[in-house]
Design brief:
There is one protein chain. The chain has about 160 residues and is mostly helical. It has seven helices and no strands. Bound molecules: heme C. The site of heme C has 30 residues, from helix 4, helix 6 and helix 7.
């Protein structure tokens, strides 16, 4: 055996390289497998799950205590007499509850209409006996009160013109 042959078999560099290979290979393999599993899992979010629907997600992640301010510069849209009646007055005036003059019944409205439009509007706005101020809706404007009183009184035989 020559010196050269001996060193080819067992040089210290070869031992180091072998050791690194033996220990590093499994580590690299494990890292690759973990990465593979993670990438497969990432693709497994079920988009059809109702919990993943856009609206559901937004609902979950929305900020707490949203401010829902009305724009104070927005023009107020005055409702029609009919809309106000349906919303705020029909509960009593549709049925005659508490002795309210019934909508569309001329006999109920004749004497009241004879007081004049302004008095009717004033009494509906300020309240009179069992009739609550603005029908219990403080948000109704004067214009809406004028419209709805004309709407109701005219159905009872008057021909008032609202403001
Ligand atoms: C809680 C029941 C109730 C609601 C709601 C209600 N009213 Fe009345 N209203 C009455 C009663 C009761 C009377 C009769 C009061 C009386 O003369 O003793 C009356 C009377 C009136 C009169 C006649 C007033 C007068 O001078 O003779 C008008 C006009 C009127 N209501 C308008 C309205 C309008 C407009 C609304 C909706 C914005 C409304 N009411 C909502 C119970 C109600």
């Amino acid at each position: 055996m020559s010196e050269q042959q001996g060193s080819r078999k067992t040089s210290p560099m070869m031992i180091v390289a072998a050791a690194v290979g033996v220990f590093a290979a499994p580590v690299i393999a494990i890292v690759l497998i973990v990465q593979l599993v993670l990438s497969i899992q990432a693709g497994h979010v079920d988009k059809d799950d109702p919990r993943m629907a856009d609206a559901a997600v937004k609902e979950r992640i929305k900020s707490f205590g949203e401010v829902n301010a009305n724009d104070p510069t927005a023009a107020r849209v005055e409702k029609t007499g009919e809309a106000v009646y349906t919303e705020a007055c029909s509960s009593c005036h549709g049925s005659g509850a508490l002795g309210a003059p019934k909508y569309g019944i001329k006999g109920d409205w004749g004497k009241r209409n004879a007081q004049g439009f302004d008095t009717l509007v004033k009494n509906a706005t300020n309240g009179i006996r069992a009739m609550p101020p603005r029908g219990g809706n403080p948000n109704l404007s004067d214009i809406e009160m004028s419209r709805v009183v004309a709407y109701m009184a005219n159905a009872g035989g008057a021909s008032f013109k609202p403001k």
